Amino acid sequence: MNYQLQAVKRAAKGARVREAGQLPAVVYGAGGTSEPLTLGHADFIKLYRQAGESTLVDLMLDGAVGGKVIIQAVQHDPVSDKVIHVDLKRIDMNKKMQAPVELKFVGEAPVIKAQGGTLVTSLHTVEVECLPQDLVSHIDVSIASLSTYDVVIKVKDLILPAGIKIVSPNAEDLIVKAAAALTEEQIKAMEEASKTPADLAKIEVVGEKEKAEAAAAKEAEGKPEAKKEEKKEEKK
Questions:
Q1: Over its length of 236 residues, how does the chain's per-residue pLDDT go in tens digits?
Q2: Cys-Cys link to 160, which of 164, 173, 176, 214 (CB 3.0-4.6 A)?
Q3: Adjacent-strand bridge partners of 166
Q4: Could you give the CA distance from residue 129 to residue 118 in angstroms, rounded to a whole number?
Q5: Of 89, 87, 88, 82, nearest in space to 21 by CA
Q6: Is the distance from CB of 139 to CB of 193 less than 8 angstroms?
Q7: What are the φ and ψ backbone dihedral angles of 33, each rounded to 5 degrees?
């Protein structure tokens, strides 16, 4: 699917652009200069939800073709979580690139279906290297192989699209596994452990020990001074 993003060159500061209901952005990379842009806020949000950060986008700049870009970074307001700024990165179609790609879990784990339990995921994205035309929006991870709780899926087990190479994380890193549901005994033990009151007697003993050690140390420091005073008296 081809994605297209309309933009115009920007002269106003970002705050002014946001006040007008639009979205400030900047595009850079591939040997080009950094250019401030203005995007339609609603248009960008719609595209971002569809394309994400690992899909090539056709940038239309002032109505003309501005080349291929990816959404490099999206800044959110810390209070409202509204998107307030966007970084776009130009892509050289003749050079390999690296980008994060989402892992999409598909299918059903037989062991969970048969015996219950939960799916435990350790990774949700991987960093890939490829030519721009080979970049994908996501990589499917089939969980149909999870036939027992001992079976796991690691990075090295992924079936990758043509031209894609994973550069991070390590091939042996865990992606997903199935975990058995807790038994009633385990749940009860956890609840009891959380209700166990602190042993005040032990806390008091520790406190008294610390006080005794501090007093002993102070007394030891004072002894040399006492000897000096005795010598002074003898001299007199």
A1: 789 999 999 999 999 999 999 999 999 998 888 999 999 999 999 999 988 888 899 999 999 998 999 999 999 999 999 999 999 999 999 999 999 999 999 999 999 999 999 999 999 999 999 999 999 989 999 999 999 999 999 999 999 999 999 999 999 999 999 999 877 787 788 788 877 665 655 545 545 555 556 666 666 665 554 444 444 454 44
A2: 164
A3: 128
A4: 32
A5: 82
A6: no
A7: -80, 160
